[in-house]
């Protein structure tokens, strides 16, 4: 097929033709909207490094979730900011913990909305690490029981899906066993399977108050230089019972999303993280980029790479923009 017989521009000439040939379609059904929830009433604190994103009390959360529901976004994911922290992150699994309160409130108000909960300890521990610290290091095996306890407490509060983000070896299996043995075999697990130790998490740590108080997370989050390792991580999580596997961050790891999808054919989630949001938002606020076009192009690229669902702080904006088209 050579010019002039084949002219690709023929099929780009107008919007109707472009729509007919469009290979990747971004839909509101692909979106998961994240929220940060904290104790109190009437709390709506904007995150300095994430314009338009707020720390919310449960009453304020319900107002924003109403908008999510009305826009047709199928799911939210909740991150908790506790009132008190300790070495073991005990508020993470407390019956009256902030996530447990939020889940119950959301499910009471919006029973048909899918509520996913982040299962980790970093927001709840005084040291800011994702597990039990012993002798200055995170003890993988000592952490597993706590993570299972957190997941079970979320499900008992009404969570529809749990998403362990800690990157401890074996945690999916421990959580699966805890759920199954307590009558929750129907609850799916979305595993943060290929979670990289990324510089793009900075704004999230401000929003969730989860920065480590010493050291870093390189001993349990993945090296950004590695690709084959991601496939091994994903394979382990699937073997242990994960129903959805996640790649995080999204945009710098499109190659990983593609490899995971091709290798396993499993449902793949991608987390378009806080740093990705902050970069686009800052450039748009300065007039350097067209926010709508850049966001839609970015999320379409993540879908094109193989992601079936995208966690994004732009979820509500995208849902509104898609309604306009």
Explain this structure.
This protein is 40% helix and 16% strand. It has 325 residues and is an alpha/beta fold. The protein has a single domain (24-324), classed as TIM Barrel, CATH 3.20.20. Strands 1, 2, 3, 4, 5, 8, 9, 10, 11 and 12 form a 10-stranded mixed sheet that branches. Helix 3 links the parallel strand 4 and strand 5. Helix 3 packs parallel to helix 4 (140-157). The longest helix has 18 residues, at 140-157. The mean pLDDT is 95. One of its GO terms (cellular component) is cytosol.
Overall average pLDDT: 95
Identify the CATH class: Alpha Beta
Structural shape: globular
Q: Domain count, please report it.
A: 1
Q: Topology as H/E string?
A: HEEEHEHEEEHEHEHHEHEHHEH
Number of strands: 12
Distance between the termini: 34 Å
Radius of gyration: 20 Å
CATH topology-level name: TIM Barrel
Number of helices: 11
Q: Tell me the CATH superfamily.
A: Aldolase class I
Q: Which consecutive residue ranges, at least 5 long each, have pLDDT under 50?
A: none
By CATH, the architecture is named Alpha-Beta Barrel
What fraction of residues sit in β-strands? 15-25%
SS class: alpha/beta
Helix content: 25-40%
GO biological process, one term: protoporphyrinogen IX biosynthetic process
Active site: 195, 248
Binding site for 5-aminolevulinate 1: 205, 217
InterPro entries: ALAD, ALAD_AS, Aldolase_TIM
């Amino acid at each position: 097929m050579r010019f002039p017989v084949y002219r690709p521009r023929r099929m780009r000439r107008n919007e109707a033709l472009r729509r007919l040939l469009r290979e990747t379609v971004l839909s509101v059904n692909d979106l998961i909207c994240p929220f940060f929830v904290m104790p109190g009433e009437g709390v709506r604190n904007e995150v300095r490094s994430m314009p338009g994103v707020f720390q919310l009390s449960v009453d304020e959360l319900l107002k924003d979730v109403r908008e999510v529901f009305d826009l047709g976004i199928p799911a939210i994911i909740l991150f908790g900011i506790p009132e008190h922290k300790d070495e073991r992150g005990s508020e993470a699994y407390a019956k009256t913990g902030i996530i447990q309160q939020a889940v119950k409130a959301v499910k009471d108000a919006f029973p048909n909305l899918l509520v996913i909960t982040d299962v980790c300890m970093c927001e709840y521990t005084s040291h800011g690490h994702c597990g039990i610290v012993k002798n200055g290091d995170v003890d993988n095996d000592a952490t597993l029981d706590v993570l299972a306890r957190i997941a079970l407490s979320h499900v008992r509060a009404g969570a529809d899906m749990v998403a362990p983000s800690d990157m401890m070896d074996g945690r999916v299996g421990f959580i699966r066993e805890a759920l199954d043995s307590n009558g929750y075999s129907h609850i799916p697990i979305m595993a943060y399977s290929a979670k990289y130790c990324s510089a793009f998490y900075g704004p999230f740590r401000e929003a969730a108050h989860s920065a480590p108080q010493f050291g870093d997370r390189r001993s349990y989050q993945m090296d950004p230089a590695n690709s084959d390792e991601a496939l091994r991580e994903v394979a382990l999580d699937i073997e242990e019972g994960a129903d959805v596997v996640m790649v995080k961050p999204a945009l710098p790891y499109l190659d990983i999303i593609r490899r995971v999808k091709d290798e396993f054919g499993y449902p793949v989630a991608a987390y378009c993280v806080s740093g990705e949001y902050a970069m686009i938002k800052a450039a748009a606020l300065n007039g350097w980029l067209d926010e709508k076009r850049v966001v839609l192009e970015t999320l379409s690229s993540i879908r094109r790479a193989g992601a079936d669902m995208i966690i994004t702080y732009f979820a509500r904006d995208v849902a509104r923009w898609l309604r306009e088209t």
